[in-house]
User: Fold these one by one.
Assistant:
Number 1:
Amino acid sequence: MEKRLNKIILLIGRRGCGKTTFCKELIKKSPLKTVVLDTFDHPDYRHLPLVRIDAIHRWKAGHCRVISGEPVENLQKLFNNVHNAMIVAEDSRRYIEPTVQKAIRQGIVEHRNRNIDLIFMFHSLKDVPPYICSMHNDVVLFKTNENVDIRQDKWSNWDTLAAAHKRIMGNPSAWYNETINLQ
């Protein structure tokens, strides 16, 4: 039996760089049930069945999305009611504050106990709160609109990220990305 790692994966890149397409492939390949916290009815997730957040505890298998309600409350309800699954937090900067709200911090800390993989999507390295920078396992880095010559000390692996960013920005493909693993 394969050991579950219960990873926290960050997908980071500007709009239109392929984060959602990459995420859709992860979902498609995953043996886990997956719920997408879709904050704005993203067209790329409309093929997934909608599950009301108050019914999420009855969801047993497959992939689905949640779009109604307040995103922080929805994420907290997902953390409290979902087990043995992957949770995708689409466009996380819309609702995760720089100090990371207590309910989200608690869910991140307890994700291993619930056997949950977490995917957070951000548009830039600077958008990721320091707490999440300290908790992630992998970064899938796409093209971003930032200057990596300005050091961001919240990242313990900044030099690795900056070097990867320069390679990514130098690649002619608009969708090129690299995975930076911390383990």
Number 2:
Amino acid sequence: MASNVFYPSLGLQLIVNFFPFIHNSLLLYKVVLLMINFLLAATFYSVLHFKLRAQPTIAAILSLLWSGSVFSLFNIAEATAAIGIPLIVYGLFNHNEKNSYKYIAIGLSISWSSHILLSTIISLFVFIYLLICFFTNKTSKKFVFLSSFKAVFFTFLLTLGTLLPLIYISATNKIKMPNMGYYQFQTWYITVQSFFTETKLIVTFLVLLFIIATIILIRDIFLGQILSLILAVFGTSAVTWEPFFKHTSLISIQIPYRLFYYFLIICLGFTIVVFATFRKSSTNSFKKILATFTFLAMTVISMTLQKDNYADIDIPGNFVVATPSKIHHHYMTGQDGYGLGSLGAFDRASVHSSDTWYLMNYSDYVPQQALANQNSSFMLSDTKGKHFIKHQLKTSTGQYIDTHSFKASYNQLSFVSTKDIDSDTIYLPVLGYQHTNISVFINHTKVSSSIENGQIVVHQRINSSDQIMIKQYMPIWEILPFIVVLATLVFLFLLR
């Protein structure tokens, strides 16, 4: 459900498009990771080679450096959003050229389709960048203003399909937001100690090394690099602004060191563009130096990814795996999904264990009415929310009835009641937002349904042999913005 109100659906759509062909969850996960990695590299390669006329070798090496750095520092949703950064960087770097705004707009639309927080940060950066360009440009202020206006206008059109559903659903439903951690907000930033001890920051050091080396080599520093490096400082302990803003909307950042990584990657994007346009970068000596550095960087990146993504090995030499028995014990002892990582790596059996998904029952972004306690972080620990996780029907008299044969896919789910229910109102164990297009079928026949208190409800008798199926469709208010997005993309691609 969170993909409807906080995490836009681009990452989910990548999974859904492959879902009909790959039924192994772990294999599907790996395919999506490879696809995102490919798109990260391919986007920047296209910018470097086809727009900046960098040689194929230089463009390929820099694209690998980019995709590896992003993948090691960002999570999946952030990495997907970063696919649009090369286009944004190119548009800003060439903001004085005709039609540069369309690259900014298309890049921002890609980011907004995957990760709200990163996209907000990037949009803030773009605004400050263009504002500085406007006030520092003494000869063509009108051109900068019109170009900036076009960038904003086309970004608005291209993000309608993402932002309109988010805003509409959020405004018409009472949604439980994540519990804000004041401790993390005030303490989780980059420090001198963590810089030299955390594995992730070794990659950060290499990225900074490349940025500094490029600045020294070219003997110049550009606005995008200056601005992103200054803003990155706000994610470190050098600037202690967090205690003064913990009761404001800025707490939605949750973890301040995100700012450091976000702006560092933006700075890397500008540095790659600058390096590619440097006239000496195409010489054989520079190619060798760049290839050697990228090889060493990719080796370090692979080492960090291996540590975080591969199973540990025990003394006899076997992989430490989270077996279904371990997961079941974890569930039976009343623990939650936060501790699953300590059980070991997940193979296909553990991923498909029902106990695994009982534990991964975060209450973030569910309708508030579905919870008895708004501070409950997990549905299973809530006296009202636990019945959804256990797939229990509820009658108008408050009786809970178990179900069986529960099956779920990306756009529908089905189950069967264990008893005959003779009640005029039956609450199904499925959450729903108001104003979404949801249909209920009993034995493949559509029945009248509604959403009450964040829960799907039917008003008729159910027999123990009845198959209940819930399907979700795109409402018209989502289809129309999508058509606008497609039309805008076609217009921008045809624009000369």
